[in-house]
User: Fold these one by one.
Assistant:
Number 1:
Amino acid sequence: MAKYIVILGSIMSGLGKGIVTSSLLKILKERGLKVLPLKFDGYLNVDCGTMNPYRHGEVFVLKDGTEVDMDFGHYERFLGKDLTGESSLTGGKIFKQIIEKERRGDYLGEDVQFIPHVTNLIKDHVKRYAKGQDIVIIEVGGTVGDIENAYFIEAMRQLSLEEKVLFIQLTYLPEINNELKTKPTQHANKLIQSYGIKPSILLLRANRKPSKEHLQKIALYTNTNKLFYDPTLETIYELPLVLEDQNIYYAIADELGIKAKKEPDWKKWKKLVNNLKRAKRSVNIAIVGKYVENKDAYASVKEALVHAGAHLNTKVNISFEDSSKLGNLSQYDGLIIAGGFGKRGIEGKIKAIKYARENNIPLLGICLGMQLMVVEWARNVLGWKKAHSTEFNPKTPYPVVDILPEQKSIIEKGATMRLGEYPMEIKPGTLLSRIYRKKVAKERHRHRYEINPKYIKDLEKSGLIFSAFYKHVPEAIEYPNQLGIGLQSHPELTSKFEKPSPVFLWLVKQSMKSSKK
Ligand code: GLN
């Protein structure tokens, strides 16, 4: 029977609950335990697909096409495992089901209520999801005290009456006049206890190590001495090691009554973290995009670069170039043209592509980035000055990027893009086939437009190489100088800390070469 860990955030948001959850997943996995995350989010969107990356950070896409938030990216990157849409439970998903059930007559004669109908539905989902696992770590989005997650926390209280559940409180010790303060933690803990829940482990986020006196005080007020320091680190990948050093596993094992199935082996992880902290070489790579004011909008691209850097023992200095007001690109050893939607910044992205192509700067175009590589090629190599994507100019005489035929009749916006994993067949002899070293590679997608198959012949004749297809959909292009690659998919979504994306490895390697020149 699966056991559960529920992680509650307290005092304020932004404490890194997702990284804590990811670190615990890794620590338990290292013991040979079967472990999965589940995240609850209180918003009433059914999924993240309709949210703005400016406000909410990147939309992460799971293998099965579910659109979720960036925390799922961290889970997968730490755990080294692909998750399913079942790992995400949102307020929107829950209430959609409740109302559908009510209309169908599943609750005939009853008045439908938060308790027991909503809480039962949550518990059923959680238990179904946990089948076959040793442990499920449930991250409750938001902060204790929010209206949005109160019914979910109540469901977790009820779950703890039926199953073995360990509650962990993530808290913050603010600092004033050089002194850490524990009072907010005491209050927040009291608030949690008023819900009928007693956290047995506390993770203390603070900018310096709490003293013995601090710990004694917190222990006295919260009734637990299982207190762990959660420092701000140079790299997020160090947190599992920091928590492991404090023996958090034994505290968890003690609370849940679990036994490790193997000895942990941190060798590889430690080496990668060391590479990140002490790399002797460095390269400068810029992500060109329009959401640069919120760095979280490109979280996975950033992490994929970090992974490649760790494996190549190189520090990747990541810069963000706003595509609406492009700066000096000559300072970069490599460029990434990010995905995106909407007209703003498009011409800036095209300019950056032209610069990279003409100056032999290693270039990776992702999704919209690839589409614009084709627009730039059509305009400047083929001389079709008015070539464009019909997403931005429906009347262009050269619609080299056009809506996917199956997308034409779709009106609803939620979860209707071409989403999730598709295989691409890679042409032998291409740069891409050397990068992936296989005939078929799978990557995740999130788009409505594609390279217009009508123009492939002309583009090929002028030298552009189409290196992969899924059926008739062009999946990848490359430049004849072998320094530019465009992918219709998002290779950043599948990069893991211990298993980096081959495309990002290629980009960082090429950038290292170009930085030497
Ligand atoms: N807007 C483009 C499309 O829908 C690209 C999407 C993306 O970059 N994810 O095809």
Number 2:
Amino acid sequence: MNSPLRFDGRVVLVTGAGGGLGRAYALAFAERGALVVVNDLGGDFKGVGKGSAAADKVVEEIRRKGGKAVANYDSVEAGEKVVKTALDAFGRIDIVVNNAGILRDRSFARISDEDWDIIHRVHLRGSFQVTRAAWDHMKKQKFGRIIMTSSASGIYGNFGQANYSAAKLGLLGLANTLAIEGKKNNIHCNTIAPTAGSRMTQTVMPDDVLEALKPDYVAPLVLWLCHESCEENGGLFEVGAGWIGKLRWERSLGAIVRQKNQPMTPEAVKANWEKICDFENANKLRTIQESTGSLMEVLNKINSDGGVSTNHTSHAASSTATSGFDGAIGHKLPQFSSAYTELEAIMYALGVGASVKEPKDMKFIYEGDSDFSCLPTFGVIIAQKSIMGGGLAEIPGLSINLAKILHGEQYLELYKPLPRAGKLNCEAVVADVLDKGSGLVILMDVYSYSGKELICYNQFSIFVVGSGGIGGKRKSDKVKEAVAVPNRRPDAVLTDTTSLNQAALYRLSGDWNPLHIDPNFASLGGFNRPILHGLCTFGFSARHVLQRFADNDVSRFKAIKVRFAKPVYPGQTLQTEMWKEGNRIHFQTKTQETGDIVISNAYVDLVPTSDVLAKTPSQGGDLQSTLVFEEIGRRLKDVGHEVVKQVKAVFEWHITKGGDTAAKWTIDLKNATGEVYQGPAKGSADVTITLSDEDFMDVVLGKLDPQKAFFSGKLKARGNIMLSQKLQMILKDYAKL
Ligand code: NAI
């Protein structure tokens, strides 16, 4: 048996408690230990007259039974006075049941101004006045329970009750917003639409029915909703005769009836009418964000697809998983490729905060840097097309509202450093679908290949809000699990202030969602202003780890896992807290301004330094260019002093293979009799030249003109570029094999 729900010490105000439903509530609360204010104006059911007898009688009844109660005879329109009685008598106010009411039934055309106004004054304005008077007290004590009394007449309409229906549904609107505003202070507001025999209903119901519909069959719901242990907030309930049901809104999937750059016409509305009104697979929306969020999706869809033709199906407003996930799991998205050059790699690095302010960042933002590298987390950009561009909406067995998806977690693993430029082919597969109750989690695995070689693997965890609870499994061995950070002070903390333009810059890397730049979209999504991309914060954090624990050496990066916890606004300062545990760097990221954790349970796995050394290219052994350099070295032995006189420069070569630097060579034609050796220049190089092993060979074999190679971007030269013209001579004369 559950323990009884008690209200000891709670101060409860019930308006209109001199009879009918209000009396039943007052008695029931008092019986369970509450201190009750019995308010009643004491007039007739049309709101005519007043008196103290009704309230006094109920107070008397409560006291007789050993309870505590005081009377108040003011109209609810004087809310302050009503609440003052509670404060004066008991020193606080915990619970308000807005119940007082009257009727002025007339068919619509015959409603006088007075009939309209008094109904609104007593029901809607009265509930507002009383609740407002109690609100601040509830806020301060961080507890409050409020009941609004609506009516089936408001929900469904009822002949002869236009004034009453309007006011009664107005109360629901009031309650909906109070539920939102009160939530953070533990003030809950719920609405009931009761049916009970009372003097109000005695003219419309036969006696035996009146008798059967006792107010006592409504009161227990009110008590439960007002109990401190009840978490219900913003609910609407029909209640009577011992039955209780909850109501909610339903919205059809609807139809998009407009195309990009085309006028919207009434004919298109007519053509789609059946679909607009079709409630099959309808949405059950709970928040304004859900409602407006789907409009965002509509706008996105119209803007990106050029609009949905009037005959097409819209995925925009659907949200529920229709069946099991069998068709979804293992579903492969169409293959796609991601090509990029240094431009994209640099734009990304700038987007995640790499800066000329930090000399060690130059390698990420200057293509001429001798160690130019693509940030490892660029790997998510390569794969991100899988979750954009509508692929999620095409997964069989799932019907996903794209407006309701959140990027929950991210895992990225690199099998070798990303090439500085390249084209990777990507295969995306739905690895699993989990039912978390409050939503579904879709695990999207994306494998990116250069030719046949697997370069990186991503797992996107996409949370689909509100589509869960259909009995699917909760766990999967496919999940790359997030890991809690150690319970000690961080070993290192790095901070970076994002710029106001951070999201505007980051989106150039391919996530064009207007949520990150357009204030109107942001407010549709429920944000004060555009928010930063979660993957942008992810990039900042990974950079911090790489900088602090791997000296920005991209070959040390193995994998990263993060959980996105809260949004970040551009301009906020990101603070990455890091813990080193072997080769795993645990981290979490906070916004310094609020202290909120925005990325949680995250880690970066580093390749142990010993492995990196082992993996360093075998000193160019498998490169064709190696032979050439060795040959140049041999020939220089004879004629070195002559050449040194002519050239007077040190050339450093970066020979790439598959986009990575595979070997470095130095041709020293400046010092003594010249020298060719493997590795970077011992002193400083006058020119640094980067080109692939293949292109190097083409240059040597005369198939590729070095100048043309330079202008086409195949050959990169840094330093005294004019000197490189002398190369042609060296290569021609000394490299003939
Ligand atoms: P009732 O007439 O027995 O109780 C209403 C009480 O409110 C009366 O005692 C009356 O004196 C008091 N009152 C009226 N104007 C007031 C004012 N300005 N200030 C303070 N007190 C005032 O009626 P019943 O049936 O108990 O209704 C309670 C509430 O439930 C009302 O809001 C009514 O609209 C609502 N309701 C009742 C239904 C039913 O089947 N009984 C159906 C739907 C809604």
